[in-house]
Protein backbone atom coordinates (compact mmCIF):
# COMPACT_ATOMS: atom_id res chain seq x y z
CA UNK A 1 0.00 0.00 0.00
CA UNK A 2 1.28 3.50 -0.86
CA UNK A 3 2.04 5.97 1.92
CA UNK A 4 -0.97 8.24 2.27
CA UNK A 5 -0.26 11.98 2.33
CA UNK A 6 -1.75 13.17 5.62
CA UNK A 7 -2.14 16.51 7.33
CA UNK A 8 -2.39 16.98 11.10
CA UNK A 9 -4.79 19.69 12.26
CA UNK A 10 -3.98 20.59 15.87
CA UNK A 11 -0.41 19.70 16.82
CA UNK A 12 -0.65 19.64 20.59
CA UNK A 13 0.10 16.61 22.76
CA UNK A 14 -1.76 13.95 20.77
CA UNK A 15 -1.30 15.60 17.35
CA UNK A 16 2.47 15.41 17.78
CA UNK A 17 2.21 11.82 18.86
CA UNK A 18 0.40 11.07 15.59
CA UNK A 19 3.22 12.80 13.68
CA UNK A 20 5.79 10.70 15.52
CA UNK A 21 3.87 7.47 14.91
CA UNK A 22 3.41 8.31 11.22
CA UNK A 23 7.15 8.86 10.82
CA UNK A 24 7.66 5.15 11.51
CA UNK A 25 4.66 3.95 9.52
CA UNK A 26 4.91 2.37 6.07
CA UNK A 27 1.40 3.49 5.07
CA UNK A 28 1.32 7.09 6.27
CA UNK A 29 3.29 10.25 5.71
CA UNK A 30 2.48 13.58 7.36
CA UNK A 31 3.12 16.41 4.91
CA UNK A 32 1.61 19.44 6.67
CA UNK A 33 0.48 20.81 9.99
CA UNK A 34 -2.28 23.34 10.64
CA UNK A 35 -2.23 24.90 14.10
CA UNK A 36 -1.97 28.63 14.83
CA UNK A 37 0.17 28.26 17.98
CA UNK A 38 3.83 29.36 17.82
CA UNK A 39 4.80 26.04 19.44
CA UNK A 40 3.16 24.14 16.58
CA UNK A 41 4.91 26.36 14.04
CA UNK A 42 8.25 25.57 15.67
CA UNK A 43 7.39 21.88 15.76
CA UNK A 44 6.50 21.87 12.06
CA UNK A 45 9.74 23.66 11.27
CA UNK A 46 11.77 21.16 13.30
CA UNK A 47 10.00 18.28 11.55
CA UNK A 48 10.52 19.81 8.10
CA UNK A 49 6.77 20.00 7.49
CA UNK A 50 4.69 22.71 5.81
CA UNK A 51 2.92 24.84 8.43
CA UNK A 52 -0.35 26.72 8.24
CA UNK A 53 -2.12 28.78 10.87
CA UNK A 54 -5.47 28.19 9.16
CA UNK A 55 -6.68 24.65 8.52
CA UNK A 56 -9.05 25.63 5.67
CA UNK A 57 -6.18 27.27 3.77
CA UNK A 58 -4.05 24.19 4.41
CA UNK A 59 -6.75 21.83 3.10
CA UNK A 60 -7.19 23.95 -0.05
CA UNK A 61 -3.50 24.32 -0.74
CA UNK A 62 -2.03 20.97 0.32
CA UNK A 63 -5.01 18.80 -0.66
CA UNK A 64 -4.00 15.94 1.66
CA UNK A 65 -5.42 12.46 1.11
CA UNK A 66 -6.47 12.38 4.77
CA UNK A 67 -6.51 14.65 7.82
CA UNK A 68 -5.93 13.85 11.48
CA UNK A 69 -8.02 16.22 13.58
CA UNK A 70 -6.48 16.63 17.03
CA UNK A 71 -7.81 20.05 18.03
CA UNK A 72 -9.80 20.79 21.22
CA UNK A 73 -13.12 18.93 21.41
CA UNK A 74 -15.29 21.99 20.75
CA UNK A 75 -13.72 22.45 17.30
CA UNK A 76 -13.98 18.85 16.04
CA UNK A 77 -17.26 19.28 14.19
CA UNK A 78 -16.31 22.49 12.35
CA UNK A 79 -12.95 21.04 11.32
CA UNK A 80 -14.58 17.73 10.39
CA UNK A 81 -17.17 19.52 8.23
CA UNK A 82 -14.40 21.44 6.46
CA UNK A 83 -12.70 18.13 5.62
CA UNK A 84 -15.97 16.58 4.44
CA UNK A 85 -16.73 19.62 2.24
CA UNK A 86 -13.42 19.05 0.44
CA UNK A 87 -13.81 15.27 0.21
CA UNK A 88 -10.93 14.65 2.64
CA UNK A 89 -11.37 11.57 4.88
CA UNK A 90 -10.61 12.43 8.51
CA UNK A 91 -9.45 10.68 11.64
CA UNK A 92 -11.13 12.75 14.34
CA UNK A 93 -9.90 12.44 17.89
CA UNK A 94 -12.31 11.41 20.61
CA UNK A 95 -14.76 12.59 21.73
CA UNK A 96 -16.14 13.12 18.23
CA UNK A 97 -17.90 16.28 19.49
CA UNK A 98 -18.96 18.06 22.67
CA UNK A 99 -22.65 17.44 21.98
CA UNK A 100 -24.38 14.42 20.49
CA UNK A 101 -26.51 16.46 18.06
CA UNK A 102 -23.34 18.04 16.60
CA UNK A 103 -21.76 14.61 16.19
CA UNK A 104 -24.87 13.43 14.34
CA UNK A 105 -24.78 16.51 12.10
CA UNK A 106 -21.21 15.66 11.18
CA UNK A 107 -22.12 12.01 10.59
CA UNK A 108 -24.98 13.04 8.29
CA UNK A 109 -22.79 15.39 6.26
CA UNK A 110 -20.11 12.70 5.86
CA UNK A 111 -22.59 10.07 4.73
CA UNK A 112 -24.28 12.43 2.26
CA UNK A 113 -20.90 13.37 0.79
CA UNK A 114 -19.67 9.76 0.94
CA UNK A 115 -16.53 10.80 2.80
CA UNK A 116 -15.39 8.31 5.45
CA UNK A 117 -14.76 9.55 9.00
CA UNK A 118 -12.93 7.54 11.64
CA UNK A 119 -13.20 8.51 15.32
CA UNK A 120 -10.01 8.05 17.33
CA UNK A 121 -11.20 5.56 19.92
CA UNK A 122 -7.75 4.06 19.56
CA UNK A 123 -8.19 1.26 22.11
CA UNK A 124 -10.41 -0.54 19.58
CA UNK A 125 -7.25 -1.09 17.53
CA UNK A 126 -5.42 -2.82 20.39
CA UNK A 127 -4.92 -6.51 19.50
CA UNK A 128 -5.98 -7.41 23.08
CA UNK A 129 -9.38 -5.84 22.55
CA UNK A 130 -9.71 -7.35 19.09
CA UNK A 131 -9.02 -10.81 20.55
CA UNK A 132 -11.47 -10.20 23.41
CA UNK A 133 -14.15 -9.27 20.89
CA UNK A 134 -13.50 -12.47 18.94
CA UNK A 135 -13.88 -14.51 22.15
CA UNK A 136 -17.17 -12.77 23.05
CA UNK A 137 -18.51 -13.14 19.51
CA UNK A 138 -17.53 -16.81 19.35
CA UNK A 139 -20.13 -17.47 22.04
CA UNK A 140 -17.59 -19.06 24.37
CA UNK A 141 -18.81 -16.97 27.30
CA UNK A 142 -22.38 -18.17 26.80
CA UNK A 143 -24.82 -15.38 27.56
CA UNK A 144 -22.98 -12.33 28.94
CA UNK A 145 -24.61 -11.48 32.28
CA UNK A 146 -22.35 -8.83 33.78
CA UNK A 147 -19.30 -6.69 33.20
CA UNK A 148 -17.13 -4.73 35.58
CA UNK A 149 -14.34 -2.23 34.97
CA UNK A 150 -12.05 -0.08 37.06
CA UNK A 151 -10.48 3.15 35.81
CA UNK A 152 -8.68 4.23 38.97
CA UNK A 153 -5.49 6.29 38.80
CA UNK A 154 -3.82 9.31 40.36
CA UNK A 155 -3.40 12.42 38.22
CA UNK A 156 -0.51 14.53 39.52
CA UNK A 157 -1.48 17.87 41.07
CA UNK A 158 0.17 19.86 38.24
CA UNK A 159 -2.33 18.32 35.81
CA UNK A 160 -4.96 20.60 37.35
CA UNK A 161 -3.01 23.82 36.77
CA UNK A 162 -5.11 24.25 33.61
CA UNK A 163 -8.38 25.89 34.58
CA UNK A 164 -10.57 23.83 32.18
CA UNK A 165 -9.53 20.60 33.92
CA UNK A 166 -11.13 21.86 37.14
CA UNK A 167 -14.44 22.76 35.48
CA UNK A 168 -17.47 20.81 34.27
CA UNK A 169 -16.56 18.62 31.29
CA UNK A 170 -12.83 18.61 32.13
CA UNK A 171 -13.03 15.66 34.52
CA UNK A 172 -12.44 11.93 34.38
CA UNK A 173 -15.93 11.08 33.08
CA UNK A 174 -15.50 12.80 29.70
CA UNK A 175 -11.74 12.40 29.45
CA UNK A 176 -11.18 8.85 30.76
CA UNK A 177 -14.42 6.97 31.43
CA UNK A 178 -15.48 7.58 27.80
CA UNK A 179 -12.74 5.12 26.76
CA UNK A 180 -14.04 2.43 29.13
CA UNK A 181 -17.60 3.00 27.99
CA UNK A 182 -16.38 2.62 24.42
CA UNK A 183 -14.66 -0.67 25.35
CA UNK A 184 -17.91 -1.91 26.92
CA UNK A 185 -19.94 -0.97 23.82
CA UNK A 186 -17.31 -2.49 21.51
CA UNK A 187 -17.40 -5.80 23.38
CA UNK A 188 -20.96 -6.10 24.66
CA UNK A 189 -23.09 -3.92 22.40
CA UNK A 190 -25.40 -1.01 23.02
CA UNK A 191 -25.92 0.57 26.43
CA UNK A 192 -29.62 1.33 26.92
CA UNK A 193 -29.73 2.74 30.45
CA UNK A 194 -27.29 4.44 32.80
CA UNK A 195 -27.38 5.24 36.51
CA UNK A 196 -24.56 7.09 38.24
CA UNK A 197 -23.23 8.89 41.26
CA UNK A 198 -20.39 11.38 41.02
CA UNK A 199 -18.28 12.98 43.75
CA UNK A 200 -15.87 15.92 44.00
CA UNK A 201 -15.26 15.13 47.65
CA UNK A 202 -11.46 14.79 47.52
CA UNK A 203 -10.20 17.46 45.14
CA UNK A 204 -13.13 19.80 45.76
CA UNK A 205 -13.17 21.22 42.20
CA UNK A 206 -16.39 21.99 40.33
CA UNK A 207 -15.77 18.87 38.24
CA UNK A 208 -16.04 15.31 39.60
CA UNK A 209 -12.95 13.41 40.76
CA UNK A 210 -14.78 10.08 41.14
CA UNK A 211 -17.81 8.41 39.58
CA UNK A 212 -19.61 5.10 40.03
CA UNK A 213 -21.70 3.98 37.07
CA UNK A 214 -24.33 1.30 36.54
CA UNK A 215 -25.08 0.16 32.98
CA UNK A 216 -27.82 -1.90 31.34
CA UNK A 217 -27.00 -3.34 27.90
CA UNK A 218 -29.52 -4.03 25.14
CA UNK A 219 -28.63 -7.72 25.55
CA UNK A 220 -29.92 -7.58 29.13
CA UNK A 221 -26.44 -7.78 30.68
CA UNK A 222 -25.60 -5.38 33.52
CA UNK A 223 -22.32 -3.54 34.09
CA UNK A 224 -20.49 -1.36 36.58
CA UNK A 225 -17.56 1.00 36.15
CA UNK A 226 -15.74 3.07 38.76
CA UNK A 227 -13.51 5.93 37.65
CA UNK A 228 -11.37 8.09 39.92
CA UNK A 229 -8.45 10.41 39.21
CA UNK A 230 -7.52 10.73 42.86
CA UNK A 231 -6.88 7.04 43.56
CA UNK A 232 -3.48 5.52 44.35
CA UNK A 233 -4.25 2.38 42.36
CA UNK A 234 -2.97 0.38 39.38
CA UNK A 235 -6.39 -0.69 38.05
CA UNK A 236 -6.82 1.25 34.85
CA UNK A 237 -6.35 0.38 31.19
CA UNK A 238 -3.49 2.82 30.61
CA UNK A 239 -1.29 1.16 33.24
CA UNK A 240 -2.44 -2.41 32.63
CA UNK A 241 -2.50 -2.64 28.83
CA UNK A 242 0.96 -1.18 28.19
CA UNK A 243 -0.16 1.04 25.32
CA UNK A 244 2.23 3.89 26.06
CA UNK A 245 5.74 3.79 27.46
CA UNK A 246 5.19 6.81 29.73
CA UNK A 247 2.85 4.70 31.89
CA UNK A 248 4.66 2.02 33.95
CA UNK A 249 2.95 -1.23 33.01
CA UNK A 250 1.22 -3.17 35.79
CA UNK A 251 0.32 -6.83 35.39
CA UNK A 252 -3.27 -6.36 36.52
CA UNK A 253 -6.71 -6.91 35.07
CA UNK A 254 -9.07 -3.97 34.77
CA UNK A 255 -12.07 -5.26 32.82
CA UNK A 256 -14.10 -8.37 33.64
CA UNK A 257 -16.72 -9.88 31.32
CA UNK A 258 -18.85 -12.50 32.99
CA UNK A 259 -20.99 -15.00 31.11
CA UNK A 260 -23.10 -18.08 31.80
CA UNK A 261 -20.48 -20.44 30.32
CA UNK A 262 -17.18 -18.62 30.90
CA UNK A 263 -15.68 -15.32 31.99
CA UNK A 264 -12.95 -13.20 30.45
CA UNK A 265 -10.52 -10.72 31.98
CA UNK A 266 -8.72 -7.91 30.21
CA UNK A 267 -6.03 -7.08 29.41
CA UNK A 268 -4.57 -10.45 30.52
CA UNK A 269 -7.14 -12.37 28.43
CA UNK A 270 -7.77 -15.03 31.07
CA UNK A 271 -10.74 -17.27 30.29
CA UNK A 272 -12.31 -18.94 33.33
CA UNK A 273 -14.60 -21.88 32.65
CA UNK A 274 -15.86 -25.22 33.89
CA UNK A 275 -14.42 -28.09 31.90
CA UNK A 276 -16.09 -30.97 33.75
CA UNK A 277 -19.12 -30.41 35.94
CA UNK A 278 -20.66 -26.95 36.12
CA UNK A 279 -21.47 -25.45 39.53
CA UNK A 280 -19.82 -23.55 42.34
CA UNK A 281 -18.60 -26.78 44.00
CA UNK A 282 -16.76 -27.80 40.79
CA UNK A 283 -13.21 -26.74 39.88
CA UNK A 284 -12.81 -23.84 37.47
CA UNK A 285 -10.09 -23.92 34.80
CA UNK A 286 -8.28 -20.76 33.76
CA UNK A 287 -6.58 -20.40 30.40
CA UNK A 288 -4.29 -17.44 29.87
CA UNK A 289 -3.33 -16.33 26.39
CA UNK A 290 -0.26 -14.16 26.16
CA UNK A 291 -1.55 -10.63 25.73
CA UNK A 292 -0.92 -9.61 22.18
CA UNK A 293 1.31 -6.58 22.47
CA UNK A 294 0.76 -4.04 19.74
CA UNK A 295 0.63 -0.28 19.47
CA UNK A 296 -3.00 0.68 18.84
CA UNK A 297 -2.03 4.11 17.44
CA UNK A 298 0.18 2.42 14.83
CA UNK A 299 -2.60 0.01 13.90
CA UNK A 300 -5.10 2.91 13.82
CA UNK A 301 -2.90 4.62 11.22
CA UNK A 302 -2.78 1.47 9.11
CA UNK A 303 -6.57 1.25 9.32
CA UNK A 304 -6.96 4.95 8.45
CA UNK A 305 -4.81 4.44 5.33
CA UNK A 306 -7.07 1.52 4.35
CA UNK A 307 -10.16 3.66 5.04
CA UNK A 308 -8.78 6.38 2.76
CA UNK A 309 -8.22 3.72 0.08
CA UNK A 310 -11.86 2.59 0.64
CA UNK A 311 -10.50 -0.88 1.41
CA UNK A 312 -11.87 -0.96 4.97
CA UNK A 313 -14.94 0.59 6.58
CA UNK A 314 -14.18 2.83 9.60
CA UNK A 315 -14.01 0.76 12.80
CA UNK A 316 -15.54 3.69 14.67
CA UNK A 317 -17.79 5.93 12.56
CA UNK A 318 -19.04 9.33 13.68
CA UNK A 319 -22.39 7.68 14.47
CA UNK A 320 -20.63 5.06 16.60
CA UNK A 321 -18.59 7.79 18.32
CA UNK A 322 -21.83 9.71 18.95
CA UNK A 323 -23.29 6.64 20.69
CA UNK A 324 -20.27 6.34 22.99
CA UNK A 325 -20.57 10.08 23.68
CA UNK A 326 -24.31 9.75 24.38
CA UNK A 327 -23.71 6.96 26.92
CA UNK A 328 -20.94 8.99 28.57
CA UNK A 329 -23.00 12.18 28.77
CA UNK A 330 -25.82 10.07 30.23
CA UNK A 331 -23.53 9.51 33.25
CA UNK A 332 -23.61 13.24 33.99
CA UNK A 333 -27.38 13.44 33.40
CA UNK A 334 -28.05 10.46 35.65
CA UNK A 335 -25.80 11.77 38.40
CA UNK A 336 -27.37 15.23 38.30
CA UNK A 337 -30.96 13.96 38.31
CA UNK A 338 -30.38 10.98 40.63
CA UNK A 339 -32.48 9.03 38.12
CA UNK A 340 -31.74 6.61 35.26
CA UNK A 341 -30.77 8.20 31.94
CA UNK A 342 -31.34 6.72 28.48
CA UNK A 343 -28.47 7.40 26.04
CA UNK A 344 -30.77 6.94 23.03
CA UNK A 345 -32.77 10.01 24.10
CA UNK A 346 -29.84 12.13 22.92
CA UNK A 347 -29.62 10.23 19.61
CA UNK A 348 -32.95 11.46 18.18
CA UNK A 349 -32.02 12.85 14.78
N1 LIG B 1 -7.01 9.11 21.75
C1 LIG B 1 -6.23 9.54 22.72
O1 LIG B 1 -5.46 8.77 23.29
C2 LIG B 1 -6.22 10.99 23.10
C3 LIG B 1 -5.29 11.41 24.07
C4 LIG B 1 -5.25 12.78 24.38
C5 LIG B 1 -6.12 13.65 23.76
N2 LIG B 1 -7.04 13.19 22.86
C6 LIG B 1 -7.97 14.13 22.18
O2 LIG B 1 -7.22 14.89 21.25
C7 LIG B 1 -7.68 16.24 21.20
C8 LIG B 1 -6.53 17.18 21.52
O3 LIG B 1 -6.05 16.92 22.82
P1 LIG B 1 -4.58 17.39 23.27
O4 LIG B 1 -4.38 16.82 24.63
O5 LIG B 1 -3.58 17.07 22.20
O6 LIG B 1 -4.79 18.97 23.38
P2 LIG B 1 -3.70 20.13 23.27
O7 LIG B 1 -4.31 21.30 23.94
O8 LIG B 1 -2.37 19.62 23.73
O9 LIG B 1 -3.57 20.40 21.68
C9 LIG B 1 -4.58 20.99 20.90
C10 LIG B 1 -3.91 21.78 19.78
O10 LIG B 1 -4.92 22.26 18.89
C11 LIG B 1 -4.54 23.56 18.47
N3 LIG B 1 -5.72 24.26 17.97
C12 LIG B 1 -6.70 24.88 18.67
N4 LIG B 1 -7.62 25.38 17.85
C13 LIG B 1 -7.20 25.11 16.58
C14 LIG B 1 -7.73 25.36 15.30
N5 LIG B 1 -8.87 26.02 15.11
N6 LIG B 1 -7.03 24.91 14.21
C15 LIG B 1 -5.88 24.22 14.37
N7 LIG B 1 -5.34 23.96 15.57
C16 LIG B 1 -5.99 24.39 16.66
C17 LIG B 1 -3.91 24.19 19.70
O11 LIG B 1 -3.08 25.29 19.34
C18 LIG B 1 -3.14 23.01 20.27
O12 LIG B 1 -1.81 22.97 19.79
C19 LIG B 1 -8.84 16.31 22.20
O13 LIG B 1 -10.04 16.10 21.50
C20 LIG B 1 -8.58 15.15 23.13
O14 LIG B 1 -9.76 14.63 23.72
C21 LIG B 1 -7.08 11.88 22.51
UniProtKB/TrEMBL annotation:
InterPro entries: Gfo/Idh/MocA-like_OxRdtase_N (IPR000683), Gfo/Idh/MocA_Oxidoreductases (IPR051450), GFO_IDH_MocA-like_dom (IPR055170), NAD(P)-bd_dom_sf (IPR036291). Residues 130-235 form the GFO/IDH/MocA-like oxidoreductase domain. Residues 5-121 form the Gfo/Idh/MocA-like oxidoreductase N-terminal domain. It comes from the Bacteria. Pfam families: GFO_IDH_MocA, GFO_IDH_MocA_C3. PANTHER family: BILIVERDIN REDUCTASE A, BLR3664 PROTEIN. This is Dehydrogenase. It comes from Paraburkholderia unamae. The lineage of its organism: Bacteria, Pseudomonadati, Pseudomonadota, Betaproteobacteria, Burkholderiales.
